[in-house]
Amino acid sequence: MIMKCGVCESPSVSSLHFGGRTCKTLSMSVVRSKQMLNESARQRRRSSDRCSLVSDVQASSSDGSEYMPCQASTAEMRLAAERFQPLGGSSVDVLPHYVQLEVALSNRRKIMYTDVKMKDFYTDTCQVPYDASQLRQFDYRNSHGFVRHDFIMLYDFCNGIMDFDRLSRAEKNLFFRYACAVDCLITSAYYTYHLGRAQNRMVMFNAEYVPMDPMPIKGNEPGAEALFETKADHEKYKSLMPTKIRQWTNMCLPFCELHASFEEYALLKALTIWHLSECYTHTRGHNRPYTCC
């Protein structure tokens, strides 16, 4: 008697699969189904982790606490930094460390994005790397965001963060990604405060600016596609400008109201990167004692 598959009646049954007589084709289908279910479960867990991260960050900033370093006076911040004790037990002058780290990043950007002469590399403490005459208007058609030399500059910046060398390889990668995002936002807000607020310009990290008066369109308004030469131009504009407008409204304008000093800006930036990285690390089940500041 020929054994047949109990599902499709195929005569190719040679053994039992999953407690019943099934052909090898159905056996592999069950295996693939289980693999898909397992992958779906992993994706749900990752999504849950991301939601937890967002909740942690929102909860920590719901009372405006992310701006507290700028609301305190520079003298108070310096006193708090002097009292800082790292895990090793020796005192560390935290504030000057992060100020110099930010100065070094500003110097690199001045060299990269301006025509500064070599003899002027070390003339003063570079807090804002550009002046108004060196700014270029943002062109969405040629926008590429961070490019390789920007990553190199932030790579050096991250390596200078206290205790960065204690992180694992995966944690360093995550930290670097957050550093890129935070630098793009907070640096733009600080440059806007010094170079763009009076003219209603949002000044970005690479010496480009976006005019915000009148407020640019988002690109998704009815009939907006008629304003662009090609569909590709319209799609790229829509992918960039709504984010720029939110950055101006939700980041640059509130930051300008803080009137932050360079020291406050440098420390706030480092604290924000560490805070986001630590929140994510804790949601992943780690409990590493960071000592940024």
From TrEMBL:
Region (Disordered): 38-68
Keyword RNA-binding set for record: no
Domain annotation NR LBD: ranges: 110-293
Swiss-Prot/TrEMBL keywords: Receptor, Transcription, Transcription regulation
SUPFAM superfamilies associated with the record: Nuclear receptor ligand-binding domain
Lineage: superkingdom: Eukaryota
Biased composition regions of type Polar residues, renumbered to the chain: 55-64
Pfam families: Hormone_recep
Family: Belongs to the nuclear hormone receptor family.
Protein name: NR LBD domain-containing protein
